[in-house]
Fold each of these.
Amino acid sequence: MLQLHTYYRSVSAHRVRIALNFKGVPYEAIYTDLDGNMGDRLAYFHTNPQGLIPALVVRDDLVITQSSAILEYLEERYPERAILPDDLERRARVRSFAQIAIADTHPLNNLRVLRYLRDRVGMELQARRDWFDYWMHKAFTPMESILEQQPEKQRYCFGETVSLADICLVPQVYLAEHTGLDMSEYPNLRRIYRTCMTLAAFQSAAPETQTDLLRKTR
């Protein structure tokens, strides 16, 4: 069985959990606390030399890191319930949309960047909040524009079925809503988010359902 090193606060792990659930792929969740004790964190470097979440352990000699690589691997290994369209042009559009979240937004607003701004740069809380909001809006504004330009409203980002675009969008919107970001200018993003969250694959991947968070709140 696949093993996924995951953490409830990780946006990257969130998108991988959605994909695994959507494809119906069984996996064992290994909860790796990025805020935990140093010994546990150092031990994790043997699995992933970057020390980042997620990591997918396929077997002892194959550990896949980086969420985009994991998502592509899952799509190729388990193609039955596809998250990329068959059509070449639509597939390119889905990938482009997804990369706004994966490549342009999340790397600027992840935990290690915000901690660096706090601990090394000495940035105050409000300035860090302004940084976070700025980059979220820089992502959501073009995402909203892309969806608005489509000839007709669709159930999901690019059609009537879930795609990689939805899988990458939902964790970013979840994070925005749970940090109080003003989402009023993004009706299409909010609509698609609500639609996705009616599905069990998305519900069971949400941070509040993860065992590591539930343990913290007991």
Amino acid sequence: MIKILLVEDQKLMRIGIRALFNDYPDMEIIGEATNGKEAIEKSKLIKPDIVLMDIGLEDISGIDATKQILENNKNIKVIMLTSHIDDGELNASLIAGANAYVIKDINTDYLMNVIRMVNDGAMWIDPQMVPFIKDKNNGIIPSRQLSRSAFKQSHSNLTQREYEVLKLVVDGQSNSEIAQTLTISEHTAKAHVCNIIQKLVVDDRTQAAVKALKEGLV
């Protein structure tokens, strides 16, 4: 059972998020907090596995609350929740120690999978943020600055078409957009993305994009 502390200052939002977990027996919200200070104190008291942290809190920001929670207990993992896209907040969240950055319009099943992946030790960034990672890397994801030939040598099992698809994934394109760009079917685009994820030994397309950036392909 994954134990979760929900931090959200809006009552209706808390009710809605809590209701999402009724159909997922492998995880449970064991506590709620309405502000950053309460989140810090409750994380000490109930020791959750995961904190679902709203960034826009009224007393102190979710980012500052994350810093203090992790200073008290480094075993807790924090998933940042936000309703808007902001590359500055993304960088600040990762510097604070957050394990994931999620836009609130995420699909419910996808969110539950993110929680499971983060609980298992993975890092996850919403695909909508990939273009910002590419354009403003600021050292959050350190690049090894390998040459393209060195990357290809390290990942020679990727086909030329898969390299083309990977670059479009890094650009933040969906499967349907990739299909249009390369004049292939959406089913074929999806198959290429699945092959890339498997060959790069990552969990999803976002991690594939991040790995490509780190390894210097793009």
